[in-house]
Amino acid sequence: MSLNIIESLPAENTLVLYHSKPKYKREGVKYFSSTELSKIPKVDVVFIISAFIPEPGRNLNSEKELFDVNVEFIKTITTHFKFSRLVFASSVSIYNADSGSIICENSEISPATPYAISKLWGESIVKEAKSYAILRISSLIGKGAKEQTFVPIVIKNAIQNKTITLFGQGERKQNYINYYDAAQMFIRASELSGNGIYLAVGTKSFSNREVAEIIKNILPGTIINYQNEDTSPSYNYNAAKTYEALNYTPLRSLTDSITEIITWKKEQF
Questions:
Q1: Rg (the chain; Cα; Å)
Q2: What span, in angstroms and rounded, lies between the C-alpha atoms of 13 and 63?
Q3: Each residue of 125-184: pLDDT tens digit?
Q4: pLDDT band at 59 (very low <50, low <70, confident <90, very high)
Q5: What are 162-177's pLDDT values in tens digits?
Q6: All structural domains of the chain
Q7: By mean pLDDT, which of 28-42, 57-71, 201-215 is the weakest?
């Protein structure tokens, strides 16, 4: 999503602070490593997008990294840019995940994982600023989507093996928002004067079966299989207040986003 924000802003007025050297750099934008924070002058708006997201079974020191990146570094940034408007990327994972419940901006907070706790901690740090906007994101989707997440995994299987395997009857619902739409919501939030918490989520949630059917329509011949049970909770949101406050409703459909990923994946094979 950071690339979408960078591409949407005037290059000559944009500075980027990064943890690891980016593969792509936009011409005209100035880039600084995290060790060069002191070199960055005062700015009007700071988008805090970077986060450490543990990969199951692969991060032995994940809790330390969660604190270092998602908490301690946030404090460092907010201290340096204490007079800037802060726009912080949080996560819907901080909410109570009772299956079937409809989540809105002020729903019950109940983080169930170390990652969710770290994001809520980051929010509390950002709230100490004079001017802030916090956007809680659902599942980002589109070109560049994380390989280990559901949609890229089933798309890869559909392309390579012509099959998609779902647990249960594929009824579990998830919410998706395209990188482009999320970036536009962040930019809109940066332009507001007041402090607020918003939901960067799509207009509706989709079942895994609906996702699979969209993929099947784009990749004819794909077979959908069902096995075992799926006890994971479904997620549904009501972001009407956010859409009104930001004067923006997500534009990219799930079909658009899946098509985008399929095109991107085919280029890799």
A1: 19
A2: 35
A3: 999 999 999 999 999 999 989 888 999 999 999 999 999 999 999 999 999 999 999 999
A4: low
A5: 999 999 999 999 999 9
A6: 2-268 (3.40.50.720)
A7: 57-71
Which pLDDT does position 57 carry in this prediction?
60
What is the rounded CA–CA span in Å between residue 169 and residue 227? 8
| Other beta carbons less than 10 A from residue 138's beta carbon | 22
Q: In degrees, to the nearest 5, what angle opens at C-alpha 140 toward C-alphas 22 and 87? A: 70
140 in Cβ contact with 177 (< 8 Å): yes
Distance CA 248, CA 200 (A): 10
φ, ψ of residue 165 in degrees (nearest 5) = -110, 125
Q: What is the DSSP string of the chain?
A: -HHHHHHHS-GGG-EEEESS--S---TT-EEEEGGGGGG----SEEEE-----PPTTT-TTHHHHHHIIIIIHHHHHHHHTTTSEEEEEEEGGGB---TTPEE-TTSPB---SHHHHHHHHHHHHHTTSSEEEEEEE-EEESTT--TTSHHHHHHHHHHHHSEEEEETTS--EEEEEEHHHHHHHHHHHHT-SS-EEEEE--SSEEEHHHHHHHHHHHSTT-EEEEES---PPP-EE--HHHHHHHT------HHHHHHHHHHHHHHH-
CA distance 98 to 234: 8
Of 210, 196, 174, residue with least CA distance to 243: 196
Residue type for 39, please?
A: K
Percent of the chain scoring above 70 in pLDDT:
96
